């Protein structure tokens, strides 16, 4: 009578300390340029080696430019971070997919797509969106830099066991509703702190019906409601996606792994610390109207009135709307926008580009919109070309950029100017997230595509 989480967790417990802290074994460690320099520095200072270098994969993603990657990075801070990761990886003997490497991309896009992420694993990275990998039936969560150092040195970290929560989404989604809409809906109901302290398993008919990439989108956003991580039990969808990928087990090893992976589901009588149920029929295309991912609404609705917010939160609510330049009670549809960003570890995968391209086919980009279409990895970029999506996009007036985190957090040059509105398929709409003063409206790839061709917030179901 165990949950999926417990089954995987228990297999990875090395030791339990007197105070209940667990020493947890880590199967896979992803490492990017932002949160790793001090960790490598710490190893060097203590004269330590990386204990199991083959279990860490490094790549720069946050600071990479999305144009002219063939040339040295111009920004000295970004260049230094990227160069530091390259030299650390070389010094410590870790696999490194640098800029220009055809396997480079956003780490949370690359891990699943090359099969480095697998069911039943424990996976960490010095990055909050590590929760993405849980979509493949793994325990995956973000860690701090001191834990990055610990992982490099020992392949273990110390953790408190989180509480478990199951979020069931019953029923069937309506047409035009994407995985991003499901996730934004869940966060709008849960609020940004609603899952704090919990590890979430997503279940139910609507979740089972999602593709592998849609699950990655949903689990990616778990962190935005405070969850430690999110996961989906692996099934045929997962196995089919994994089979034949570079790091996936092959031949007899595959059969052995598959037999084990099939046991990875919560038992019928498993007990969760908290159970929540939503209905897919209640979900419509979503957008955010405020400055945290919990401030989401159905696209056909009106921005919540001041009175609908509890009194203690009204000042911060008003501040968020002022930042966005929106009024309580007004409809959000029809609002003029300036930028569209398709990309990030939330929605930068091939299915997102297919959805976007399919939608804009035969239409034209609105003149008032600057669109940044940024594939999540070089693998995605190649697939876009192979499928001829680039031709469709070009005909509709769009152009593609090179892979990286890009405008998701604007650590590179892709910054939305102050006061401008960006409909963004990324995961955070905090003040200044996409550039100082930038205003972010989070949405899925279809809402982004509808905004790109109309220049306004538009319900994609109406086009
Ligand atoms: C830079 C990194 C530490 C950060 C994270 O942890 O999520 C970033 O990826 C983000 O999305 O804000
Ligand atoms: S794409 Fe965005 S959310 Fe994902 S790792 Fe990069 S900065 Fe973080």
TrEMBL record:
Q: What class of enzyme is it?
A: lyase
One annotated GO biological process: L-leucine biosynthetic process
Positions of [4Fe-4S] cluster binding: 345, 405, 408
Catalytic activity, as annotated:
(2R,3S)-3-isopropylmalate = (2S)-2-isopropylmalate
Q: Which cofactor does it need?
A: [4Fe-4S] cluster
- EC number, UniProt record: 4.2.1.33
The cofactor remark states: Binds 1 [4Fe-4S] cluster per subunit.
Gene3D superfamilies found in the cross-reference section: Aconitase, domain 3
Q: What is a single Pfam family found in this protein's UniProt entry?
A: Aconitase
Per UniProt, which keywords does this protein have? 4Fe-4S, Amino-acid biosynthesis, Branched-chain amino acid biosynthesis, Iron, Iron-sulfur, Leucine biosynthesis, Lyase, Metal-binding
Q: Name one GO molecular function term.
A: 3-isopropylmalate dehydratase activity
Q: What does this protein do?
A: Catalyzes the isomerization between 2-isopropylmalate and 3-isopropylmalate, via the formation of 2-isopropylmaleate.
- Protein's name in the database: 3-isopropylmalate dehydratase large subunit
The source organism is Macellibacteroides fermentans
């Amino acid at each position: 009578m165990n949950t999926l989480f417990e089954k995987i967790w228990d297999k990875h417990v090395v030791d339990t300390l007197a105070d209940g802290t667990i020493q947890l074994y880590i199967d896979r460690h992803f490492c990017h340029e932002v949160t790793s320099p001090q960790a490598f520095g710490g190893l060097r200072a203590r004269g330590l080696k990386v204990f199991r270098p083959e279990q860490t994969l490094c790549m720069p993603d946050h600071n990479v430019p999305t144009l002219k990657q063939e040339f040295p990075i111009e920004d000295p801070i970004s260049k230094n971070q990227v160069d530091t990761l390259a030299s650390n990886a070389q010094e410590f003997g870790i696999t490194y997919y640098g800029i220009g490497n055809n396997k480079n991309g956003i780490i949370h896009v690359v891990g699943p797509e090359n099969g480095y992420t697998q069911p039943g694993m424990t996976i960490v990275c010095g990055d909050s969106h590590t929760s993405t990998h849980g979509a493949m039936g793994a325990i995956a969560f973000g860690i701090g830099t001191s834990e990055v150092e610990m992982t490099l040195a020992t392949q273990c970290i110390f953790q408190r066991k989180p509480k478990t929560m199951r979020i069931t989404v019953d029923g069937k989604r309506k047409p035009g509703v994407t995985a991003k809409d499901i996730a934004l809906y869940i966060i709008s109901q849960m609020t940004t702190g609603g899952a704090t302290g919990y590890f979430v398993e997503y279940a139910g008919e609507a979740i089972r019906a999602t593709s592998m990439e849609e699950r990655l989108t949903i689990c990616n956003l778990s962190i935005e409601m405070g969850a430690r991580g999110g996961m989906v039990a692996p099934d045929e969808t997962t196995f089919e996606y994994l089979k034949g990928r570079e790091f996936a087990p092959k031949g007899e090893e595959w059969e052995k792994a598959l037999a084990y992976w099939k046991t990875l589901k919560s038992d019928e009588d498993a007990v969760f610390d908290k159970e929540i149920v939503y209905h897919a029929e209640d979900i419509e295309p979503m957008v955010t109207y405020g400055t945290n991912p919990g401030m989401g609404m159905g696209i056909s609705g009106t921005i919540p009135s001041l009175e609908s917010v509890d009194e203690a939160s009204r000042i911060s609510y008003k501040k968020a709307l002022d930042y966005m330049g929106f009024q309580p009670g007004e409809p959000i549809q029809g609002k003029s926008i300036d930028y569209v960003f398709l990309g990030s570890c939330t929605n930068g995968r091939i299915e997102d580009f297919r959805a976007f391209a399919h939608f804009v086919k035969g239409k034209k980009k609105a003149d008032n919109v600057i669109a940044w279409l940024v594939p999540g990895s070089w693998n995605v970029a190649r697939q876009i070309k192979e499928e001829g999506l680039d031709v469709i996009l070009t005909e509709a007036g769009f152009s593609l950029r090179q892979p990286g985190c890009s405008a998701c957090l604007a650590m590179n040059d892709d910054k939305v100017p102050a006061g401008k509105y960006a409909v963004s398929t990324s995961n955070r709409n905090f003040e200044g997230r996409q550039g100082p003063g930038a205003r972010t409206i989070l949405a899925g790839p279809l809402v982004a595509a509808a905004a790109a061709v109309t220049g306004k917030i538009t319900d994609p179901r109406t086009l």
